[in-house]
Amino acid sequence: MLLKKKKKEGESNTEPVAPATTDPFEKFRSIDWLREWTRDRQREKHFAKRHKSPVVRKLHKLWGTNSGWICVFMVGLSIGALGGLITLGTRYMSDLKNGVCLDRFWLDQQLCCRWQNDTLFVTDVCDEWKTWPEVLGIGVSKNQSFWDYTVEFLFFCIIAAFLTTWAALLVYMFAPYASGSGIPEVKCILSGAILRGYLGKMTLFVKTISLTLVAASVLSLGKEGPLVHLASCLGNIYADLFPKYGRNEAKKREILSASAAAGVAAAFGAPVGGVLFSLEEASYYFSVKTMARSFLSALIASVVVRLANPFGTYQTPLFFVDYRMSWSFLEMIPFILLGIFGALIGCLFIVANLKWCKVRKTTRLGKHPVIEVLVVTIFMAAVAYHNPYTRKATSALIQELFDRCNYGGQPTDLCNYVNITSDSGEPLLTADNYGHTGGLGPNLKSALWKLALALVCKLIFTVFTFGMKIPAGLFIPSIAMGSIAGRLMGIGMEQLVLTWQGNSPWLKEHCQVGVDCVMPGLYALIGAAAVLVGVTRMTVSLVVIMFELTGSLEFVVPAMVTVLITNWLGAYIYERGIYDAHIHQNGYPFLDGREKFESTTPVKAVMNPRPGGVPLRVVSQDTVTLGDIEQMLKDTHYNGYPVVDNEIDNNLIGFVERTDLKLLLNYYAHNGEIGKGHHSSQSTVRSNSLSATSIESALNDLTVYSAFSNATTTNASNSRGQLGEKTASLHIPNKLMDTTPLSIDGEMPMEKVVDMFIKLGGRHILVTKKGRLLGLITRKDATRYVREVEEQGSDDEHESEEIELIGEPKPNEVNNGGIEYIRL
User: Fold this and answer.
1) Are 515 and 432 in contact (CB under 8 A)?
2) Which of 152, 294, 302, 731 could anchor a disulfide with 258, C-beta 3.0 to 4.6 Å?
3) How confident is the model at residue 179 (pLDDT cuts 50, 70, 90)?
4) Cα separation of 761 and 30, whole Å?
5) Is the distance from CB of 628 to CB of 822 less than 8 angstroms?
């Protein structure tokens, strides 16, 4: 049956031919969730038939129930240990840019000073830790000279360039999939896409090493997103050890969802936030059982991280804070302003980063990823070194911005408050015991403009860093930008309150002189949440992660208000978050169920066959031969083929998978059950094809694992000499065919079809008219159509084209997108 489009007046009669080579979806495959779930149920039924012993059945059920728990336990244990090792390695190499511990060169600065027991604080100078000028013998004086500064600058830039260049070389030479954050690709995989090699062992090994190297450099990136990718790699590897999950792609994705939660828990020490992240941001289908397993995996990862103590604080939260105060409803105004700022800077970053990634793809820059990494690193190191807030490690910067000032601890420029007196010597503003409610000291004034410059640098650096061919996460850079903005606003609000305190009796009543009324560290915390949600568009999981990060639950309400304001405004300005935006730009086959899609175009205007496209290959049950099937498998690479009764009626019988056709060919190649010499009638074919008494049980045994059976990997053409007479007719057994495939009427609107793909998880849907096959639409076709409508802004073009069915199906007729019957 052929399809023909009626053209409007004035339209060209020439039908456009889309070049197949430019389709970004052709290189991807997807799983059929319905088929995989059915296959898992068949596996259980098949085992029950083969084993009658109650003891064996109970043991099998016990193992099947607990194997998933064992698998996620192993993932949590491994990613927790791996995350701890990466953090320790990052700390050591990050400190290596500034100096070395002479007696124990394998220790970082914190462990070196603790071993010597000279100081209690990380930023203090101890005798055993030597800067590079001191190592070279030119930095012995207390006052830093020009040569000291130059040597430190050169070592800083050279070591940073060395680390990132080696990381880029490892990724470029051995595992290209190890680059980037990994979260967009993991989202696609969890939605059902198949990205070969993305969760492989080489990717795991290379990304672990390269992530440790780049996280210690000066580049504006984090290791939290890549840890989600590493945890998914571990989940994929461990799932293959358990046949229930290794041989079923749908069940395997349950393990991958739990692995994503463990990755976040290992990165932040936030088990509950990890589970919510997997539910809200990563997973496509998230059952109650998957949630429980995710919680176990995240819990184990957090416990291992706590035991390893890679942060050196002997606490689970990454940025522990202790705010000895509450918040006032008056502070909701600056919190809302921080939410607006987070939405604006988040959208600015997304747009700028997407444009730069497009430039990288469309120019020669993308052909030289290692050189790009080297040049960008040298430039960023040269700029960042001169500002202490861009030179220090990002995690240490965030901790300093979150902390409250306390004279009992290590003094910093951010706590340089002074007393202000009048001309007569009467105190006007007095710094309290915690260093607040005083005037701005000279060091604090200098720190303010340095922080403002650091905010601009962090934004620009992150735009150029995210997307390079190295592992790069966004959580820590986003938190850093937000915490800088929040700290600046907090200091401004603090001084504003002090200025108006004496002139406002009401304010003076609610905020006594000499008491902490405004905590700048709290504003840094709220600002960090605002920018992070502006970039990623997470909501509930982000709030939980932020407060598991800091261990402070008193300020949940202001954080929730800020996150909601940021999310609403950000979605209004730019609809997608950074991960969804990269999925869209990279052309990944991902249907987002959270996005509303409206289209009244009938599915018959979008289905295959399409005018100018490849004809639809259909198996005709009454005329198909072994030679036809063998030739079809050689000529095409489709996942499956519709089966009709005959070429005249064209009534849909079912759908047969490619792997099952290979299974059938291999069976007949080794058993020789086909008659020779002539075409048989349908009844004769059926008796010949099913003459062996064990054929149904054999096929039943193999169809349970047909997609993963070794027999299906055999090329049917290799058995050409064993197939006997290729003109012998063949009847496809019902056990190898889905006799109840998803089918819809050709008039169904595309918005319903897209909804079916999202909620049912099918890989393809057959299009019929009163039982007669019209065509087929795949998940990739639906995704492609959604992208086309989004780019055009509407689907008016599709609605203006009327579709009519012309002629009757003719054998062997192919006419620019018709149905081609499998008959030679």
Assistant:
1) yes
2) 294
3) very high
4) 10
5) yes
For residue 73, which amino acid is it? F
Structure-derived torsion over alpha carbons of residues 336, 339, 341, 342, reported in degrees to the nearest 10: 170
Say what percent of the chain tops pLDDT 70: 77
Instruction: Let me know: does 823 contact 812? Beta carbons within 8 Å.
Output: yes
For residues 20 and 739, what is the distance between their CA atoms, to the nearest angstrom?
Answer: 31
pLDDT value at residue 478: 94
Return the higher-pLDDT residue of 410 and 713.
410
- Please report the pLDDT score of residue 437 as a whole number: 56
Confidence of residue 519 (pLDDT cuts 50, 70, 90): confident
Q: The dihedral of CA 422, 425, 427, 431: what is its sign?
A: positive
User: Which one, of 156, 225, 148, lies nearest residue 185 by Cα?
Assistant: 225
Per-residue model confidence (pLDDT) at position 821: 56
Going by C-beta distance under 8 Å and a sequence separation of 6 or more, which residues neighbour residue 723?
A: 626, 627, 630, 665, 668, 669, 674
CA 511, CA 554: separation in Å to the nearest integer? Answer: 19
| Angle of helix 332-362 versus helix 520-536 axis, rounded to 10 | 40
Q: Which residues pair with 81 in a beta bridge?
A: none
Q: Tell me which amino acid residue 555 is.
A: F
Amino acid at 818: G
Calculate helix-pair angle for 249-268, 288-308, nearest 10 degrees: 40
Q: Which residues contact 327 (CB under 8 A, 6 or more apart)?
A: 522, 554, 555, 558
Please list, in sequence order, all residues whose beta carbon lies within 8 angstroms of the beta carbon of residue 77, skipping any fewer than 6 positions away. Answer: 300, 301, 304
- CB distance 253 to 293 below 8 Å: no
Tokens representing 144? 């830093």
Distance CA 152, CA 132 (A): 6
Amino acid identity at 412: T
Q: Which two tokens stand for residue 635?
A: 């000529």
The residues pairing with 214 across neighbouring beta strands, listed in sequence order, are none
Cα-only R_g, the chain: 32
Least confident segment among 94-103, 234-243, 728-737: 728-737
| Neighbour tally for 499: CB within 10 Å | 11
- pLDDT over 70 at 507, yes or no: no
Which of these, 456, 466, 458, 281, lies nearest to 355 by C-alpha position?
Answer: 466
The DSSP result for 401-428, as a single string, is HHSPP-TTS---GGG-EE-EE-TTS-EE
Q: What is the pLDDT of residue 813?
A: 41
| φ and ψ of 27, to 5 deg | -85, 0
Residue among 355, 260, 274, 372 at smallest CA distance from 581: 355
Given a contact cutoff of 8 angstroms between Cβ atoms, the answer to whether 391 and 166 are in contact is no
SS3 101: strand
Strands 640-644 and 616-620: parallel
Q: How far apart are CA 132 and CA 154, in angstroms?
A: 10
Per DSSP, what are the bridge partners of residue 194? Answer: 29
Lowest mean pLDDT among 252-256, 282-286, 779-783, 817-821: 817-821
| C-alpha–C-alpha distance, residues 42 and 50, integer Å | 12
More confident site: 115 or 124: 115
Q: Residues with Cβ < 8 Å from 703, sequence gap 6 or more?
A: 42, 660, 663, 735, 736
Q: Report the distance separating Cα 224 and Cα 264, nearest Å.
A: 7
Phi and psi at residue 601, to the nearest 5°: -60, 130
pLDDT value for 628? 83
Distance CA 703, CA 46 (A): 10
- 390 within 8 A of 458, measured Cβ to Cβ: yes
Residue 200 to residue 191: CA distance in whole angstroms? 18
Burial of 330 (0-12, 13-18, 19+ CB in 10 A): middle
What does pTM read for this prediction? 0.84
* φ, ψ dihedrals at 186, nearest 5°: -65, -40
Name the DSSP letter for residue 586.
H
